[in-house]
Amino acid sequence: MDRTLIIIKPDAVQRGLIGRIIERFERRGLLIAAMKLMQIDESLAERHYAIHRGKPFYEPLIRYITSSPVVVLVLEGNNAIEIARSTMGATNPSEAAPGTIRADFALEIGRNLVHGSDSPETAALEVPLFFDDEEIVSYQRNTDPWIFE
Ligand code: DAT
Ligand code: MG
Description:
Layout: E1 2-8, H1 10-14, H2 18-28, E2 31-38, H3 42-48, H4 58-65, E3 70-77, H5 80-88, H6 101-105, E4 114-116, H7 120-130, H8 144-147
Antiparallel strand pairs: 1-3, 1-4, 2-3
The structure holds 2'-deoxyadenosine-5'-diphosphate and magnesium ion.
2'-deoxyadenosine-5'-diphosphate (DAT) is lined by residues 52, 57, 61, 91, 109-110, 112, 115, 118.
């Protein structure tokens, strides 16, 4: 089973889209292993987006992600990383495929509603930034055999 870190970003929280975004992941069958509402401070934002430091959009990105509370989740499932990213759509909502979260609810790259880890290596770095081990719950659902072959 793979794990991915999802952030429902400040614009999504402010716009009342938390439930509709979580529903997209939940209805595909991904398992919610951890979830909380929190405020990202500057130090956490800088660690999470360290790879983008120095890029022209870095400062606005840090301001955006720290501007209001977010909801963070750990999702689990076979290919959870790719599946979550395909559910989210392309980074720029104007290029995202219809039916994806970013295409259906967003217009601009700097207000793209949701973050998802982009590789197993990234997920392994990102998950511990947001969750302690004991916050991640390991469990099985009675529906799992109907979702995972
Ligand atoms: P993603 O969030 O799809 O993994 P990313 O890791 O390349 O995309 O970038 C992180 C965030 O930074 C992205 O969600 C929005 C912002 N961003 C990326 N490229 C950008 C650009 N060219 N102009 C403005 N913002 C950008
Ligand atoms: Mg990324």
